[in-house]
Q: What sequence folds into this?
């Protein structure tokens, strides 16, 4: 089975200069967990996901300590609210992941699963000539699995 048979289209994207607030609203309004980011040519330049809005532990070199960081800034507990307020003005290109793992429409579902497992990803943009044309998520794979499993007998 090929990616084109399970991918979601049309894909919802945002421009690099989109605000984080706008991106968050799009994700909440559309009930999606991530948005491919496109440049002024419409080519994929990154991805922003729900996890970009949540604090992450960042290791300090040569120590075992991990400190909270959000939007690329250290997050002292007393400044959490200030950081989220400031994030409203930040642009997607400031926090997006740039090295995006992708698939094409003619890749197999096995390729999708392998990339998701190997890289710990929840979604993969589908590209054609560097432009997003769809997206495949873990939910799409789950839907495929349920479609091909025999239905349990009713009691």
A:
């Amino acid at each position: 089975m090929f990616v084109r048979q399970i991918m979601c289209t049309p894909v919802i994207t945002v421009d690099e200069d989109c605000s984080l607030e706008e991106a968050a609203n799009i994700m909440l309004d559309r009930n999606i967990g991530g948005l491919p980011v496109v440049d002024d040519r419409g080519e994929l330049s990154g991805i922003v996901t729900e996890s970009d809005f949540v604090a992450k532990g960042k290791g300090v070199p040569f120590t075992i300590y991990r400190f909270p960081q959000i939007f690329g800034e250290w997050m002292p507990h007393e400044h959490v609210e200030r950081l989220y307020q400031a994030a409203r003005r930040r642009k997607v290109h400031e926090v997006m992941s740039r090295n995006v793992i992708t698939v094409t429409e003619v890749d197999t579902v096995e390729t999708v699963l392998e990339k998701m497992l190997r890289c710990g990803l929840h979604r993969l943009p589908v590209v054609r000539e560097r432009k997003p044309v769809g997206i495949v998520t873990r939910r799409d794979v789950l839907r495929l699995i349920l479609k091909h499993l025999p239905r349990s007998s009713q009691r």
The mean pLDDT is 83. The beta strands are 14-15, 34-38, 44-49, 56-59, 66-70, 73-74, 123-128, 131-137. The helical segments are 20-30, 80-87, 109-119, 138-148.
